[in-house]
Design a protein that fits this description.
Chain lengths: 349, 349
DNA sequence: TCACTAAATGTGTGCGCACACACAAAATTT
DNA sequence: AAATTTTGTGTGTGCGCACACATTTAGTGA
């Protein structure tokens, strides 16, 4: 109008579609600039009248509180953007079964979604899925575990190295020179090996670079039999017996609650730190049996993941390639806020 | 249609407007229920074609990083909901001048906004403003400082008591039995008196209830001359000289950085804790001169405040009366995440 | 009975945009 | 030069809803 053309032409200019005389195009763009025009997202999506389907593939969330929270975040995001025509379709696979991962992935691919979000739990299989997505032009967001040099839209998750550093820092509060701390991996196999190595590196680096006044020994232990209380108890007691200078244990995942039961009756002064605000951990935190929990914000992981796809697919905005989640230090005194946060944030709609 | 009526009638039912036969109304509601109908927010606001104006009244943000961050949160929220026809109109007053508060308030009232957000810095004046709003039917959100029994839509801010508890907990890490800690108020007059009293109560309660093994003395100090480095230095040195058992200082606001300069050359082992991620504090945190900062999420305060008005005015949803913000424990090792968070969260649009 | 009001319901328009289609002018081809 | 294609541009419809207005039906008094 202002540029002496019809809405149709303006539309063509703004969407780079159809044929427009270069001279006219320039004139329109100039007017658009001058008027500071911004497309009305509401009217736009309303008229577009189509939905963008995004698949979210997560480990079965029945058992696992951690993934349950990630899914909560996904649902939160879904609600926030549902009016903009983004629908989220959830899929689940077995955390311990690569085959299940592949099957679910195939199901998703068959449906040809417009976007995909998943944690690359199994390296090989994840590589395959990434390739499949690329072949089909499906943008993908990977969460929780990073795959270096992937062509994913972005990675959202924790900074393993830094969480190790932080864990070290937390244990160091109560450690005096000459004492020792234990970094304990309660994990089966090498599933998240890289992951754990990074944590260990961060953990060691902290003590290496902060040795001004303290000399702290680091004991690193792996133990797979954590599901058998008896075995675990024996292991823990041995650990304590072996080193009288031990002043703290840093469990590298959410299984920290499992070792608390083993310490019953010890009334030890061991400092205990671990990960994730799952109910059992919180219970022990309240009871002063766990000193610190590091909250990896699994909920934010799901939330930001979906939001990133939304920005890319709907808003057509650029998204940051790597988005590390905050590492919250949770103690008894501030735990409640982090629990509330998850409920209070349902944004829009 | 489904209920044998026209869209007009359905509209009347859903908006409780106009005359509808009770019998028809019931039938429509039943069908709506059955079909799980949800109003399309986009189409709704598009057709509504009006903007809802919300006034936000904050202290002048030029000098004060804390309020600057609150305003950032406000702007973030504004962007998130701009498409839904909510416009935010910012107003500023002088933090130290009640008269300015009143003037600005009057300006806002003259404009008859649809909602108002402000921190009740001055009790009397805030009471007046609250009353004025009520008289004009303007819903209001109060942030930062609570006013008990107000008829505000909601309060969003910190839990002063709990932040005192947390501060005590942080200092207690490095405290041994027989030592003492100082709670230091660097504040002029009694502006936020209640506020500070609550913090002190929390601080003391922590040590009172956690005296199982440690006996810690608490020294509480107020000092108003914090803007004169020489005065402050003298004060701090006196403080240290007076009590050789002193092992930590908890500054009850963001002015914690001011005492760091005074400790130069002391190479003391004092643990220092304070509030807020403002640049100077962060600098000292990185340099290991401040041990802990408590992040009160001023940004979230502004964000949630506007979002609450949005929910009330646009979505017509209920909002929680009291929304406490998380108290983040920030140490050198996790500081960067909290800074990033503020930038990365621009939600929609 | 008719005229008239009030209550109840239906209809139409437009919000700002995307997109299909219609149409004119210019560039080819035959 | 006529027939055809290509390129450029205008028009019209509908997304789902809010709201003004038109229309029908029921209720009232004379």
């Amino acid at each position: 109008m202002k540029a002496g053309v019809s809405t149709g032409t303006v539309d063509r200019v703004l969407h780079n579609r159809g044929k427009v005389a270069p001279e006219v195009k320039e004139r329109v763009l100039k007017v658009v600039e001058e008027l500071g025009y911004e497309r009305n997202l509401l009217a736009s999506t309303l008229a577009y009248n189509r939905t963008t389907r995004v698949a979210v593939m997560l480990p079965n969330t029945e058992k696992d509180m951690y993934w349950r929270q990630t899914q909560d975040g996904v649902e939160r995001a879904q609600k926030a953007v549902q009016h903009y025509g983004l629908v989220v379709e959830p899929f689940f696979f077995d955390y311990f079964d690569p085959q299940s991962f592949l099957q679910t992935a195939q199901t998703i691919l068959d449906q040809k979604p417009d976007g995909l979000l998943f944690p690359p739990i199994f390296f090989q299989e994840a590589q395959w899925l990434l390739a499949q997505c690329s072949a089909n032009g499906i943008p993908k967001v990977i969460v929780n575990t990073n795959i270096a040099d992937s062509d994913a839209l972005c990675y959202i998750g924790q900074d393993s190295y830094q969480s190790g550093v932080l864990g070290a820092r937390l244990l160091s509060f109560g450690a005096n020179s000459g004492q020792s701390v234990c970094l304990l991996n309660l994990e089966i196999g090498t599933q998240a090996a890289q992951h754990l190595l990074e944590k260990e590196r961060g953990f060691r680096d902290y003590f290496a670079h902060n040795n001004g006044n303290k000399k702290i020994d680091i004991i690193r232990k792996d133990f797979e039999g954590f599901n058998d209380p008896i075995q675990l108890k024996a292991f823990i007691h041995q650990l304590i017996a072996d080193d009288s200078r031990l002043c703290g244990i840093f469990v590298t995942n959410s299984r920290v609650h499992k070792i608390i039961d083993c310490l019953e009756g010890f009334h030890s002064k061991l400092k205990i730190a671990g990960f994730d605000l799952i109910p059992t951990n919180l219970e022990y935190l309240q009871a002063n049996k766990i000193n610190f929990l590091i909250n990896q914000n699994p909920s934010e992981q799901g939330f930001l993941g979906v939001m990133s796809l939304f920005r890319h697919l709907i808003l057509k905005q650029a998204v940051e390639k790597t988005q590390f989640l905050p590492l919250d230090i949770v103690v008894k005194e501030n735990a409640e806020y982090y629990l509330k946060k998850q409920a209070a944030f349902e944004l829009i709609g």
